[in-house]
Write a structure and sequence with these properties.
This protein has 324 residues and is α/β, with parallel strands linked by helices. The protein has two domains: 63 residues, no CATH class; 250 residues, TIM Barrel, CATH 3.20.20. It contains nine helices and eleven strands. The strands form two sheets. It has an eight-stranded parallel β-barrel, surrounded by five helices. Strands 6-8 form a two-stranded parallel ribbon. β4, α6 and β5 form a beta-alpha-beta unit. α1 runs parallel beside α3 and α6 runs parallel beside α7. The radius of gyration is 20 Å and the shape is globular.
């Protein structure tokens, strides 16, 4: 006789995996479930059968539901920028409430062509801004907490992005880790700005550094008993920005690695840049960034701006989409 735990996995979780694999955007199943479910599944094969108490069964059901990845049936749509700068993206040009309303309208446009995928709204904040000589300006805690708390109250994810500058990328990442105690917070690193000469030389991260970054996040989640998974977004728009990228791992249980295309230009150029990123099949979860024309002298932008249907026509289809 099969145990109730095993039956629960077969009846509830296994169909989710099969359903995901049947979709055109699907990735291999271990990208979509965290270590807790996988460990329970393994334990079921080695433990003697028993009947759970009602309390045990309810706890198992609740924990299993919490371990399903947000990306299983959902795409992320974000507004990007610095809250205190009108020149660093749309996020700095409107109040939180206005951004929420605008993003809701855009999310509806994406959901209309998503093929059944849900759209999760997000704010993508530049947390560490590179300055001349590679110095870094850190976003004030009070400002960041306004976005985090608004997100908690209104079901909006928060990404915090560090541009690194002249500093060690892992030390830069560690500065953001305490914010993972808020369940809607995810992290990002931008290799372009890992440089002492911003606007003159492109920076980079290595595959080995990105693996270390993921391990640091996973260890922090486990050591602090923080549930679920977190995303780590890494930007790339040319071959310089991720060195030895074939070494990047994406098999961490608690970290979903998002490989994001960050180039500016007309749709043909953006598709070419995305195709270059798509060749890195060891990083199957892709992101795509679009740039509004904000009327800033000398600033690049997308012309014309790709439509939601055109974004979803990219191969592989991106699961994280952001607008700067």
């Amino acid at each position: 006789m099969l145990s109730k735990k095993y039956l629960l996995f077969v009846v509830i979780l296994l169909p989710l995996l099969i359903c995901s694999a049947s979709q055109p955007h699907a990735v291999f199943p271990h990208m979509l479930f965290t270590e807790t479910v996988n460990n329970w599944k393994k334990a079921e094969l080695t433990q003697p059968y028993w009947v759970n108490t009602k309390e045990e069964q309810e706890a198992f059901n609740q924990n299993a539901e919490n371990q399903v990845s947000i990306l299983l049936n959902t795409d992320i749509l974000a507004y990007y920028g610095h809250p205190n700068s009108r020149n660093m993206g749309i996020l700095g040009r409107h109040s939180i409430e206005e951004l929420d309303k605008m993003l809701t309208v855009l999310a509806a446009e994406y959901e209309a062509v998503s093929g059944g995928r849900k759209i999760q709204k997000a704010f993508y904040l530049i947390y560490g801004t590179v300055w001349p000589e590679g110095e870094i300006g850190i976003l004030g805690r009070e400002t960041l907490m306004r976005y985090i708390n608004y997100g908690l109250e209104n079901n909006i994810l928060i990404f915090i992005d560090h541009q690194i500058g002249k500093y060690d990328p892992i030390d830069s990442l560690k500065r953001m880790l305490p914010f993972l105690h808020y369940p809607n917070v995810h992290l990002a690193l931008d290799p372009e700005w890992r440089t002492e000469k911003p606007m003159e030389y492109f920076g980079y991260l290595t595959g080995e550094e990105l693996n270390t970054a993921q391990q640091v996040i996973e260890d922090y989640l486990i050591e602090n008993n923080l549930p679920g998974e977190r995303m780590l977004v890494i930007h790339q728009f040319n071959h310089l920005m991720i060195r030895n990228r074939e070494a990047v791992r994406t098999d961490f249980d608690r970290v979903r690695f998002i490989h994001c295309m960050d180039g500016i230009g007309h749709p043909g150029m953006k598709r070419d840049s995305y195709a270059f990123n798509a060749r890195a099949t060891n990083m199957p979860l892709k992101g795509f960034k679009l740039f509004y024309n904000l009327g800033i002298p000398g600033a690049g932008f997308d012309e014309p701006l790709m439509t939601p249907a055109e974004v979803y026509a990219l191969n592989p289809r991106p699961v994280v989409i952001m607008y700067q």
